[in-house]
């Protein structure tokens, strides 16, 4: 029976995701020749070729795709085995690495860390800020154990590498200049702002969310300015340059120039999810951090 080397299988999985040997090498902090050598060894160990020439590049063979289908099940089983081993360990000491997008850190991760410091003081949580889409690469490579992202950035539900759970439906409010004609409207509807100049990002999830929410309200927002930093967005709103949707997790407050208004009638939301590698949700330390995050989300 051939040996299945999990490290080489993870390397093959990364190549399948990123498409090139160079990108794989950069992601795994290896040299391109090192990647090629490892995959050549995997081919010899399994007795089937993993790569074939495709122009100036290489691509995975049909045999490699068969291997990967079974490899994902192996990865999940290893995580479950690790979970059982941890259950037999004494004490509460351990470490869990969490990757999260910026606005999730103060609203969800920090409250969870504070709770865990009281209940499990020997459990360390290491936090890494990353874009919502990037955290899945970190999760797949083993750089983090828990990922927080927006649902719009999550991989397809059929992706068996990860176990995902809904964490929070984060309300979206609207920021308008304090002197705006609708700043004090008690029943402000998003459609009433259809003719306004809008401020949102050039790409990524926040742009997609803004467009989707406005489409649900019956209009396409005319983007006047491009920004993704909340301080910059609110400063532009305060200067009368436009209006913007802002997530409740970003915790912006009405200031002397910009007013935050709740859209009670529209009730727009963005959905935050947690994800772990399949099988890792049963690891005691990971499960404790997930529960703390769920408790933080329940208070929002």
From TrEMBL:
The keyword DNA-binding applies. InterPro entries: LysR_HTH_N, LysR_subst-bd, WH-like_DNA-bd_sf, WH_DNA-bd_sf. SUPFAM superfamilies: Periplasmic binding protein-like II, Winged helix' DNA-binding domain. Keywords: DNA-binding, Transcription, Transcription regulation. Residues 4-61 form the HTH lysR-type domain. The keyword Transmembrane helix does not apply. Signal peptide: none annotated. Belongs to the LysR transcriptional regulatory family. This is LysR family transcriptional regulator.
């Amino acid at each position: 029976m051939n040996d299945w080397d999990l490290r080489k299988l993870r390397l093959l999985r990364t190549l399948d995701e990123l498409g090139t040997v160079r990108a794989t090498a950069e992601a795994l902090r290896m040299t391109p020749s090192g990647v090629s050598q490892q995959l050549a060894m995997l081919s010899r160990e399994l007795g089937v070729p993993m790569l074939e020439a495709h122009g100036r590049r290489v691509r995975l063979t049909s045999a490699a795709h068969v291997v990967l289908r079974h490899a994902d099940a192996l990865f999940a089983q290893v995580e479950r085995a690790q979970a059982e081993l941890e259950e037999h360990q004494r004490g509460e000491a351990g470490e869990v690495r969490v990757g999260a997008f910026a606005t999730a850190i103060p609203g969800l991760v920090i409250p969870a860390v504070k709770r865990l410091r009281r209940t499990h003081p020997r459990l360390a949580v290491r936090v890494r800020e990353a874009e919502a889409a990037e955290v899945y690469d970190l999760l797949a490579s083993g750089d983090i154990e828990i990922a927080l992202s927006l649902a719009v950035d999550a991989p397809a539900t059929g992706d068996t590498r990860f176990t995902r759970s809904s964490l929070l439906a984060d309300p979206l409010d609207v920021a308008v200049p304090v002197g705006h004609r609708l700043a004090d409207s008690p029943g402000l509807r998003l459609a009433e702002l259809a003719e306004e100049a809008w401020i949102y990002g050039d790409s990524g999830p926040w742009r997609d969310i803004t467009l989707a929410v406005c489409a649900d309200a019956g209009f396409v927002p005319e983007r006047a300015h491009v920004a993704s930093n909340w301080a910059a967005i609110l400063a532009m709103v305060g200067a009368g340059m436009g209006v913007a949707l802002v997530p409740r997790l970003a915790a912006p407050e009405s200031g002397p120039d910009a007013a935050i208004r709740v859209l009670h009638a529209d009730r727009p939301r963005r959905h935050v999810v947690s994800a772990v590698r399949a099988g890792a949700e049963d690891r005691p330390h990971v499960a404790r951090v997930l529960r703390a995050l769920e408790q933080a989300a329940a208070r929002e």
